[in-house]
Write a structure and sequence with these properties.
730 residues, mainly alpha, two-stranded parallel sheet, disordered C terminus
Amino acid sequence: MGAAPSTPRLGEAGAASPGAAEQMFAALVGGKAYPVSSEFWRQLLELPLTLHWPRDRVLQACHAFAQNNYQTKHLAKILIHLVWCLQDCTSASSVSYGAYRKAINAAYISSIFLKFIIENAKADNWQELCLDIDKDEKGMETFPSDQSVEYFLMKGVLKYIGSVDVSPESCYLHHELLNLMLVLMSTQLCSGPSPEPKDVHPFIDAAMHQDSSIVALVVQKLLLNFVKRPQIPLNGSHPIFSDDGGPGVLQRVGSAAANLVLLPYYTFNYLVSASAEGATSQLADNSLVVLLILIHYRKCISTNESIPTDSIYMSDSNTNVKDAPAFHENPYCRALNNANDIQFDRADVEGNAQNGPIVRLSFASLFDALGTCLKDESSVLLLYSLVHGNCNFQEYVLVRTDLDTLLMPILEMLYNASRKSSNQIYMLLIILLILSQDSTFNACVHKLVVPTVPWYQERLMHQTSLGSLMVVILIRTIKYNLSKLRDVYLHTNCLAILANMAPHVHRLSAYASQRLVSLFDMLSRKYAKLAELKNDKALKVISDQMETDLISDDMSTELHIYTDFLRIVLEIINAILTYALPRNPEVVYAILHRQEVFEPFKNHPRFNELLENIYTVLDFFNSRMDMQQLDGEWSVDKVLELINKHCRSWRGEGMKMFTQLRFTYEQESHPEEFFIPYAWRLILSRGFSFNPGAINLFPVEIHVDVKQPTKMIHHQAYKRFRDDREPLGF
């Protein structure tokens, strides 16, 4: 390799003059390789990084770094130094501010250049990263000979995140490491929506190979960060960033857009919000999205790799299906699914047949944090992951007496469905569906009374049961979907929740009862309209028979769907009348008041058996009203008084007993095709920018200036355009 290049000099007494700092960065991105043992790395990482460059110079620096990295291997070297800095921040009982500064700078600088290389890589195996460093190089004596750079890096970063508590001194480093984690894992954005054996993600794959003790610590710390929401101080003169208390990195990051900092390509910064509240949640929010990416990652087993059966790698449950992809077990997902409440006796926890360390934290605090943060879409995904995958947490939620803590935010978001993404609505409904599979939950929600519902605008709702509110909101969601989204899957989920709740309904409110009958009326009118249209089409003679057949098939499918929907609604009403009529006089009143809506279906072959029970109830109460000697007209109060009186004597004579309709939630056969893109969409929506032309995980639309009014083109076309350009020089 020849003589080692001389190290650029700082100013007097190590002062970082602007000229010297610029010289250091020119050396970093230049073509001369500095050994790992060079004094250059210490001087670089001790820079206060207050240098400002325009955006075009930053991009030129990134291009130069990427181009010269093939020879210099500077990316691998700065990543190694990052881990050594992290070791310095954990080995000593008292960590100096200088040690924190070096680690923060190493993470920050690495993020910039690493992100640029990932965004602009042309090879699927990430050869541009050039992580295959010569381990015989001077200074590499302590580097583990059996570890790759990416494994060494992930072990160091994850170990620090999991084992070091967040403090006023360490919070900045934690924040920067979480940002770095997102960059390291962003290689997923460049792969297709379906994981394939050929996919290579060097850093997240290395994270999956870490010891179970590190995995458990990381999952636990990320959850604790979400729960505790540690505050990041906004004091820009913190000594971590500048020894003399002068302008430091916080002011640097907040500089004007026209005068960008040296490395502005990285979108995350400390001044996300000028308010203390925004700053308080930043570390917690980043912890959450890092956790979501880790737990939903899936690594395909390659075709020439035997499917492992040991405790570390297990094939996915779908691997028994012919030609279905097989996946390594995700240790972070397993750790989250096995997490337990800290209130449990440790001996009892350890007595269970669990492999490796167990994540333990306060479920009460986690429950409260979720209730507070559910308006954030990432928190909804975490709640889904917990209630679906972690039996311990699901059981904990079901025995809570204050279910409104979780349910009220969920119902409010469904109420505002028009302002939510379809994915968020799906997640909310699936959470409710999972919970509604438990009979205790269904009984509890009808006994829990909500004093007021301030966000419900259509009418005042005071002292209504949580169960009645759920019925109202679910029916409202169905009506919204019918008019706007027209999504069969969403319809089915809403009706499934209502069906699970039906046998346990207790004193359903008048408004909820009316909504239930009006739902049947609305669906029946849609059904009648479709049936009429189909009959009209059948009577017409159209020359293009093929087109007629296609229209007829589509209409028959839609008619069949609405037939199923109507039947489910009838089963819901049936279940209430069969198992809970004495406790629901308002439901009886609602079907008496609107009994004409059932008449058209009385002889329908799909509905007649279910309508028999409804007419048994109608005949019983109609006859009691006919026998009642009444002075004057029937009023609502008088009808309800009669219904309440005869509800107590109701014995269900003549009612046919049907098997209770029960719905359970099962994940799709390839959940990773939904959850991996969904998690990354959430991250991008939070401000993490990524070159749209490099994204293959999901379709994106981007604007490209072609010396005309801005045009929007598909990302694949843009990728070809981008790859054909000449790289910038430095």
